Amino acid sequence: MANEPIPVYVFTGFLESGKTKFIQETLEDKRFCNGERTMLLVCEEGEEEYAPEQFADKSVFIHIVEEQSELTAENLEKWLRDANADRVVVEYNGMWMLDALYSAMPESWMVYQEFMFADAVSQKIDDIKEKLKWLLPVVLAIGTAFAGWKIALKLAEFIENLNRIKKAVGLIPGGFALWAKRLAGVALIAGGLIAIFKGIKGIIKGEDDNWKSLALAIGGVVAVAGGLMLIFPSLAGVIAPIALAVSGLIAVFTSIYNLINDNGNVWTNLAIGIGGAAAVAVGLSLVATPLVGIIAGIVIAVGVLVTAIVKHWDEIKAKTKEVCCCLEK
Prior knowledge:
- The protein is an alpha/beta fold.
- 66% of the residues lie in helices and 10% in strands.
- It has a 5-stranded parallel β-sheet, sandwiched between helices.
- Helix 7 (236-261) packs antiparallel against helix 8 (266-287) and helix 8 runs antiparallel to helix 9.
């Protein structure tokens, strides 16, 4: 038995192409995982994670390989001895040269099978879904803002018609139109504050990847702004940009909160955070000066980026390598 070669099963392909899922299902199969001690070398970590408790038996030993430089004959032999394994399964990094593995393999190791994963169609669909997901909060927020604007216009038109009736027939008591505007403004403010509260509560709870809660909170800001403009029409030029800045701050809060607590997709949260920083910059530029807006936007955007890098460096690095590799090809 000592002279028999060590079987090696190599799984290659790009990140998120299905390698981890296939290996997991293989190790759950009693026909493959039937008591032989197996060393699983994991050379990349994607969104899919292994569930060792679901393996067919307890004879699988996982070793994480962080860098390609770790692949040396000495290390491979040592890891095999430490695991006291009879065979090796390798989930290889799609960004590494395959020759680095084969040239480092000890003489006693023999590749029995190599599997190449290239789930291009599913990956493309997932990419499109992710991009659309980035747009959903923006589209929903714009739609909510547009609806609030149209409601405010209709209310103003209705009140103006009542004013005309009052002037024409003198049936409506004096000052009614003014108080109707104020009541409508108060109603909008109350509804908006409730929406903001529910939205922020949903963000903190991590509901629906937070984008619905974010849209609800931003819609609440728009409603409050509309109500204030009905009550104080002369301040509309100040209220609108402040509402834009507040909406941006809510988006930034959502982004940073999600990044810190691992809620949702890293890239979606980055997009929300950068978009929020831009909204704050525009709002402050209109209220104060362009310089103030630009400085605030840059500081906030840097804060979002630093949070993402500190909390999700491995994922960002892997995705960046993958994009660079695709561009080189």
